[in-house]
Give the backbone structure.
Amino acid sequence: MTDSSLLYPPNDSVHTATTTTLTRLDKLEFVGGPIPFCTVTAIPQYCVYGHGPYLRVASIHTVETPTETTTTHPARRPNNCDPKFRVLEGQTVHGMDWVPLSSSSSSSKTAATTTTTTTTTILSPTTISSSRSHQEVTLAAVVFGGRQAAVVLMEYHGDDHDTNHDNGNSSSLPPPPPPTLQRVPILSSHNNSNNNNHNGTTPTNQSPPPPPHYPKNVLEFADWVWDCRLVRRTSSSRSRSDDDDDDDDDHHQFLLYVGTAHNDVQVWSIELQRRPSPPRQSQPQHYCLCRQVHQYSGARRSILYSLCFWKPPPPPRQHQRRQQGAKNSGSIQVAVGTVTNEILLWSLADGPFNNNDMTAIDNIVNNKTTTIVTESHVLQGHQGVIHAVQFNHDGTQLASASDDRSIRLWGQQRRQQQQQQQEEENNDNHPNASVWTLQWVAWGHTARCWNVTFCNNYRHPDDDDDDDDDGRNCLLASSGEDGTIRLWSDENGEPVATLQGSGSYWDVDYCSTSGMLAGGGNDGTVHLYHLASRLPYDGGATTCRRRRRRCRTIVAVPDDRRVPSNEQPTASSSSAIEDKEDSSKPTKTKKTKKPSAPKQTFAGVEFVANSNAPFLRVATRDASVMELDFHSLQWRQQTPWWDESLSSFAIQPSQGCCTASHPDDPRILAVGTMRGHVVLCRHGNRIVLDGSGHKTVQQMTWYNSSILLVYHVQAVRIWEFRGEPIPQVPNLEHSQSLARVTTYAAGEKAVVISAALNDARSMLVVGNSRGILFLFHVTKNNHDDAAAEDMTVLPFASRRLHRKEHVNDLRWMSNDRILSVGNDGHLCECRVENQTNLVELLRSPIRAFTGIDRILPPLTQCSKDSVLLGGYSGNQYILIDYKTFYEFFRTDTGGRARTLLFSLDADSKASNGQPLLSTITTPRKDGLNDLIVESQWIEHPESVRFTLGSNLHNETLFDIDLIRLGNGKLVMLSASEDCSSCISVWNRTLMGIENQALLPPQESGVRAICAKLLADDDSSMFVVEGGCKLLLRFYLIQVTKSSAIHSKFLGKGSPTENAAIDHRINAVDSFPMAKEGSTQFVISGDSNGHVFAYFVSVKGREQTSLQGALVFENPRPVLSLTILCCTLHFCYIVVGTSGGDVFVLSIPFSKTQIIADGSKIHHHLKAHSMGTNCLSALCVDSGTSVMNFRVCSGGDDQAISSFEIAIAPEEVEANARGNSTCTISTIASQQVSISAIRGISWLDDRHIAVSGYGQKLSVWELTENSDLVLRHVDDTEIGDVNSLASAISSDGEKAFIAIAGIGAQLYSVGS
């Protein structure tokens, strides 16, 4: 009889039964998913965007929060912790329209109209940002999405901070307080005669009685809502003075126009009222009465994919009376995009709704009439579905975006005056008084175009009002599925700029007041751009710095060419060559070639960061040194770097090949030569650092004031200058006498490309042209004799990380972590272990690049885990943030062969930002060179947040796992269709993501993922991910107390080398084979109906490829599986297939291998009539030596099945004799959903969490009679739910649930 202690602990995914009281289900947060709506024009200094059924209000300024632990820098609030407000019920917010109700500040109280993608009326720039006084703004908004709309009040109380940054002190100003949002309860009414008088207003001597309860939070429609327009309603019969408001503070009236997907427009009357008495704290302060008063239907019945309204702005108040008797020409215009690739234009006929005749409105409310409207124009040209239509601010232009990847601009042209007057006399509506024509078509998007908007008055606020740089004040911005926002000229449709994102951009919006452009993507983030800083401008760097915009200037390099006499062929030598020719051969007349002009060749070009002003230094192979001042764009000549004194070293000026200026004294210049020597010069003082025996100097870098790194072809030499700092030494010969050099040999089969020195750890890492990293111990050369030979050090570790491509840049991120980038377009991270080995932690391709050539530090210390990457995408050079994929810079180099320099002072002390400088060297036909100098202003993240939200994935999530570490961190692992897996660390206080890390992508999506906590290190976990081609990858992930994520790649597994792309892994699980977890037993189920098993070593070296053992075969695909337990010789697993079957089997193994042919099926159950999509197991303490497991499963038949499995300790000996003591109880099944169940998990020994395509999360209790009783249910805020996972809190009193689909959502269940 085998003792029970021989059994290993149950699997982490097999929850141990606990006793909890699950009386409450709470929504915590949801991340990822698309952002279909965003705007930066509603509230000053805030971005409002839709995320699921919520509106999020995010400050565009940095928000800091105190941390739980003491740190030197305040922690930045997680992006997805921006305040959110639930406005819809089970629908996704797609848009919003608003009107101002009140605004109070020291500035004038005015209103203006600006047309954007989703707005019509906003507060004027004067009201928003013309003063710095206390400001109070109240907006009434209608938020819509799906088949719903809600009325929302937005209140903003704060200081009226100037959005312009002229004073340069914006970063020191405290952020404005967050606005408050209130969803107004709605009362629908068909007869409102008891509450209103004949003019449609509430009598002043009484208030309508408040309703006894508020039955609705949203308006429900029978059709999909594409756009809404909210218009202030006034009474034509009501007499008021010019200075009076149209409504009092307690009563406001509106007309709401709702455009739906079947070419209809509904007109609703909205009356917003305040409760007459102070409400209880639990009751809202306002409510609104809503009634539908009319409907317009287009004569051509069609399905719409887009719709927008346009209404002329109201005339100034002083002109309203004189226009009362005139014909109203302010009818609302409607543009719709159809599935038949046409744009229809029609007008809502002039009538009581447009004239605000409230008496007439009251008279027709009960008639339920519908007006049929014939389209006035049909615009044809698109070859695909039209996803967006948008009017400009005055209604004379219409932009459209289509499935055919084109952007089109249509313009309105007035007919002849006489013909127009005649039409007006014959037809009061005169819909054809103008003609719409196609002005231009723009191509550039490589996928579907989702949205388009007009960028009016796009000049930066720093520009003078009378300084019209290019004669235009309007651009078009379009967003597309290709992950770009493209800017177009409104005159001819020429491309102006491209902004690259990480995924598809769904929406785009522009605010002319702040100059900010916002783009909402399908990865759950909103990217903010200063539009003017992204636009090209022909001007100097001074103009760029003053206006903070992008400048591009071509500067000619002065002609310094000279031909040394000792390099010219002499006449005698030419005669000698001719005498060697065979005189017997007939002479041929040779065509004399025109001698080519000598070419100007650079020895080095570099940016020099001077304390006064940065400049560009050029050293040529004609010995010249020239400096370009960026302010004046003027050249100044300096002392040549070469003279005849260098001839003793056989150095000629034509041998210069690279330069490096001293960081503390720019007058000191180092020039590397082809002979391996380095010339160090300061004005006329020159010395030579001997490089005899070494090949050409490839590159040089000053590590600090006294250490110079010299990259030779096959070695790196470190020159250390002892004694006084070089800038303080009057004669360089003195520094030469104290210089010591050490050589670090990097092999003879490749060229040194990059290096990085870690002086604190005395280590040097070198990258070469073959993708290999070499690690050296840095030793101090203590030779006192300057003439002594330099020391040579060999590497103690090496590793190939970038295939066989150049390692272009290296950076030490800590004392043991190294980042590297290369021409293969990958970012790699490795760690130095035990001072003897380089271990690969991460190797991730960056999809924005075809080759990466530099790593830059982050722009702020608050995001120290992030880095900036610069590299090429074709001929385009771009700079992005690795964490958020935010693009800071992009330029066309004209070819990767051209020399490009790049400079970004990340430590700039400027409060509002710093310039980014780049130069491109272009040769001319006359042999000289031009420099294309670009300067772009980048705002500091301390003052502006570039990215809002949290970028989880770009596509649907297939699988999710949740694990609680021993240090209290809650970690979520997600696998997605976008080919990547993401590790997210949750901040349980703020309920936001503290840190994220992406694992390297797999081809064609990651389908399954799981994590198991290590027994000997409760901050580390073993992670398995499975994808297409039946590929498995194994990682060791550590999460520190500071939420830093460290990953180590352990290896990969594949059952066959010839798996097709559509052969995919559907489920994975693992189990520790030793108490310390040094070996993991891994199983995978795939679409071929196979289950493979693997042994994976966690503590050993990387295992390049593991061959799985086939332990189960079935004709139906395996959809789910879980490991129950492992004994000394057997592993018990449960497998679910697409046929609804469940199998319980045991897998024998020894210490070294899995015995595949010994696996045995103990039980076969028909748990479901269709696919068994998910499984969950629970270990129940029976009080005996028998191990009991409760298993539940969810299937496509909308049912939950549950059963119990008992495994006796005697099974080891019994199985050795061919018998089994694994028993199973009778299966119980119950339908619990109206759709397929995709995720299931035990929360304790009685409660089960379930979710699926029904977009609901439910918690069921399993009674003693095996019946399921519903305890909690809630609508999820994500669609296409594919998976569910749970974890128990450290105190055991609460369970956390994560569901995955289009995004991820977190819940808590407890008392």
About this structure: The longest helix spans residues 417-426.
